[in-house]
Amino acid sequence: MSDVEGLFGNTPQPSAGSLGVNTHSSAPLAVRMRPRTLDELVGQQQLRAGGSPLRRLVEGDQSMSLLLWGPPGTGKTTIAAIVSQQTDRRFVEVSAVSAGVKEVRAAIDSARSELARGGKETVLFVDEVHRFSKAQQDALLPGVENRWVTLVAATTENPFFSVISPLLSRSLLLKLESLTDADVDDVIGGALVDERGYAGGAHLETDAREHLVRLAGGDARRALTYLEAAVGAATSVGERDDDGRVVVTLELAETAVDQAAVRYDRQGDQHYDVTSAFIKSIRGSDVDAALHYFARMVEAGEDPRFIARRLVVLASEDIGLADPTALTTAVAAAQAVQLIGMPEARLNLAQAVVALAVAPKSNAVYMGYEAAAKDVRAGKIGTVPPHLRDAHYGGAKKLGHGEKYRYPHDEPHGLSTQQYAPDVVGDAAYYEPTSRGAENAVRERWERIRSIVRGSRSGR
Q: In a 10 Å sphere around its CB, with 0-12 CB exposed, 13-18 middle and 19+ buried, how is residue 142 labelled?
């Protein structure tokens, strides 16, 4: 039995007319219903079209590495399995959540040994490759460059930011689109009638079906998980229609989905709710609440780089110059995530969470930028004052560029009274420092500076 068969093909097939539900021996519905060919894949017409790179790869049995970029549940894992099955290659899966450099190298060494023995080529599927550190991604390069493996790497994040350039340049990048509601409905409909699913033994009432489609949010795997829970609940109740099919009502579907959904879904509503509560707890200076939500995110498998990015943004948006070290702390934590990786980097992130939560808060930097941007968007652009214009090219002086410019370093205290902003916003006061933390000293200094630089126009 091949590796692919071990993963996808060792599932008892239900007989016609039966529900095909066997919670003790059957694989999950989402696994049983995984498409076996490109033609069975739902959505992604741009990838399945005749002559497309993916179809040429599969049907031409070429050796080429793929980088699949798209939202969850759009078929990334399925495509990897299809490449393996239809090209008769071994299938080896490595999860970036739990694997390290050692596991990556072991998988590549195994593939190399298999080739040396005259065996099958190997498809190495790396799920969530964006979670790999640079060192871990570097470990993939020898296998790709020497074609010891056909790498199929999946990511939900922009690979131009999350995947190293050497790996990106050696892979064919395929972008997957979110499934439409019609696509998800097709997935559900297929599972209801297919022999691998319920083979016509279950019926969803219209409103229940619409409910599952809506909650799936374009994620086929989630739709099938919810469907399986709903049919399981209906089977327990035992209500059947005149054709002997188990009936899934809206009420049953709602109850089943609530029980099936994880308490914190990285890709669902809970993801946004917990993230929002996390940021607001730090902004509100509640360290304990912030650590609680941080722990929930980490334990649920949230990408630590996502957490780090949110901390870097918060450091400037909600703390700013009230504690100038906040941004340094957040950036250092983000770098630690890249350098060390999880699980150790959770402590670096936790330190940043605590530091940012207890720091004095100020949104003056954020408000200052927004005020300036509002004027720019309103068309208050104005011309650059002549004395500030570039005077380093021939003819600039004839145009008056740089004339009467006062060099601050030649002035007392390093400050010169002159106009810097265009006339249209010459008196604008965007940055208004608070009196909190270190920003209080900034406020006092900025008021003195502004009165000198602007002179009588300052009004301060």
A: middle
Q: What is the CA radius of gyration of the chain?
A: 29
Contacts of 48 (CB under 8 A, 6+ apart): 38, 39, 41, 54, 55
pLDDT in tens, 158-197: 888 888 888 888 888 888 888 888 999 999 999 999 988 8
CA-angle at 187, arms to 122 and 93, nearest 5°: 20
Beta bridge partners, 152, equal 66, 125
Domain range 377-458, its CATH number among 1.20.1260.110, 1.10.3710.10, 1.10.260.40, 3.40.50.300:
1.10.3710.10
DSSP 8-state class, residue 383: P
The CATH number fitting domain 44-175, selected from 3.40.462.10, 3.40.50.2000, 3.40.50.300, 3.40.1080.10:
3.40.50.300
> 3-state DSSP: the chain helix, strand, coil percent, rounded to 5?
55, 5, 35
Segments of the chain assigned to CATH 1.20.272.10: 269-358
The model's pLDDT over 386-399, given as tens digits with 9 standing for 90+, comes to: 766 665 655 556 56
* Predicted TM-score (pTM) of this structure: 0.48
User: Would you give the distance in Å from CA 226 to the centre of its chain?
Assistant: 23
- Architecture of the domain spanning 269-358: Up-down Bundle (1.20)
Looking up tokens 């033609």 gives 39
| CATH number of the structural domain 181-260 | 1.10.8.60
Q: Give yes or no for a contact between 93 and 104, defined as CB atoms under 8 angstroms apart.
A: no
Residues pairing with 175 in the sheet = 69
